[in-house]
Write a structure and sequence with these properties.
By secondary structure, this protein is an alpha/beta fold. It has 19 helices and 12 strands. Helix 5 links the parallel strand 6 and strand 7.
Length: 423
């Protein structure tokens, strides 16, 4: 079977992307590819591997091409799509090809920087200006200094790491390195005025190489693809920034679920309360019933009714956003839970479950009681199921947490502030 290779012309390199992993290739690059093909865009993406031993070389063997296999439910209909993503122009291993990496700073066409270096990737760590020993923000600071020295304009910077205020924190880290390394007031002024660090929220399950379907997919498409990626159909990218930039990145023109907003906070709250909260609410009761996956839980009429009531009657009323938007998001969540292609095991959700419950569900209980002066029955039932699971099931948590619940009475457990205090 032949290897995937490029037959189309490469696009102008306008995007520098830190991260060659499954998520960005199944999310951001997929979006730029659609802009190119459906909106006449010209967005070429340079992928920089953030760590040694990455997959830039594998990507280059395929001329930057790879196949994305999307699968899920769309308006209740089982949907599958394979697409060759063609926006990536090359991959760079900056540890082996440092000069090639920094030469990108001299490209006046380069406009956007995207990253996903995991939640631990955006960190400040004091140290010398040594490329291989500093953090991602440190390497970004070096790159931006090279851009400044070249006398060129700055960037729109869109980090996708799953931390609060990811853009603001990335900027703070870069500024601290600029101070440590004596980059000067001119650079700091340029960084402030010529660059826009945007807070973002991303939401898509990208499952990576589809071992269960790879052989059949390659049989159908007729070529071998070692960078094959897979994702659910649902996607959401919330970008906190001036809406004038939406004209540069017209995702809305092709129907992509990209939201430009002045404040990403309500969208994060919506995701945590409804998507993560519903996962958390259903898991202990479902596991006590012998259910193993989220999809299996939603196929059980009793659990499905419990989840629906919890979301629409008790969670949604605690989120301060337009009701229609919340309900539309909730319907998407329920459809995602029923995805026939993804086995989301409850055992993975239940891992370190107390900390998840106190962030994802407990605030909804508190806010509901404050608002209505009555008990949200589904959410409180979930709390009871949680305690029962820790007492009689097989929880995977800190040993001290497990012992505290196993030995305590219900009253003692509920009064234990070390378990339930939201930090």
């Amino acid at each position: 079977m032949e290897q995937l290779s490029r037959k189309s012309k490469k696009h102008t390199e306008r995007v520098l992307q830190f991260g060659e992993g499954n998520f960005l290739r199944g999310f951001v690059d997929w979006m730029f590819d659609r802009l190119n093909k459906e909106c006449g865009g010209d967005y070429g993406v340079i992928i920089v591997q953030p760590l040694p031993g990455g997959r830039a070389e594998s990507l280059n063997k395929q001329d930057g091409l790879y196949t994305l296999y999307s699968r899920g439910l769309l308006n209740g209909v089982k949907t599958e799509e394979t697409r060759i993503v063609e926006c990536v122009t090359r991959g760079i291993d900056p540890y082996r090809n440092t000069e090639e990496f920094f030469s990108c700073a001299e490209n006046p066409e380069l406009r956007y920087i995207v990253s996903n270096t995991t939640e631990a990737g955006i960190e400040y760590r004091r140290g010398g200006e040594i490329f291989s020993q500093t953090t991602f923000p440190g390497r970004l600071a070096m790159f931006l200094k090279a851009r400044f020295d070249a006398g060129l304009k700055g960037f729109l910077i869109l980090p996708c790491e799953l931390i609060d205020n990811n853009g603001a924190y990335l900027k703070e880290c870069v500024m601290r390195y600029a101070e440590d390394w004596s980059y000067g007031e001119g650079f700091k002024k340029w960084l402030e005025e010529e660059n826009c660090f945007m807070n973002t929220l991303v939401d898509r399950i990208v499952t990576g190489y589809p071992k269960d379907a790879a052989a059949e997919i390659e049989r159908q498409i007729g070529y071998h693809d070692e960078m094959l990626d897979s994702a659910e159909v649902f996607h959401l990218w919330v970008i906190e920034g001036d809406k004038k930039y939406a004209a540069e990145l017209p995702f809305d023109k092709i129907g992509l679920n990209v939201v430009w907003t002045d404040d990403v906070t309500p969208y994060k709250k919506r995701k945590v309360r409804i998507l993560n909260g519903a996962h958390t609410m259903l898991s202990p009761a479902a596991m006590l019933m012998g259910v193993k996956t989220v999809r299996e839980a939603m196929e059980n009429s009793v659990i499905a009714e419990f989840v629906n009531k919890g979301i629409f009657n008790e969670m949604i009323p605690t989120v301060d956003m337009p009701s229609d938007e919340l309900k539309a998001f909730a319907y998407d969540v329920l459809e995602r839970f029923k995805n026939p292609f993804i086995d989301h095991y409850l055992s993975s959700i239940i891992l370190n479950f107390i900390s998840k419950f106190r962030v994802r569900v407990l605030p909804s209980i508190r806010d509901y009681i404050e608002k209505y002066n009555k008990i949200p029955h589904c959410l409180v039932y979930s709390l009871a199921a949680l305690i029962m699971f820790y007492k009689n099931g097989d929880p995977n948590d800190d040993e001290s947490v497990i012992e505290t619940i196993k030995r305590g009475t219900v009253s003692e457990i509920l009064k234990n502030s070390s378990l339930w205090a939201v930090i």
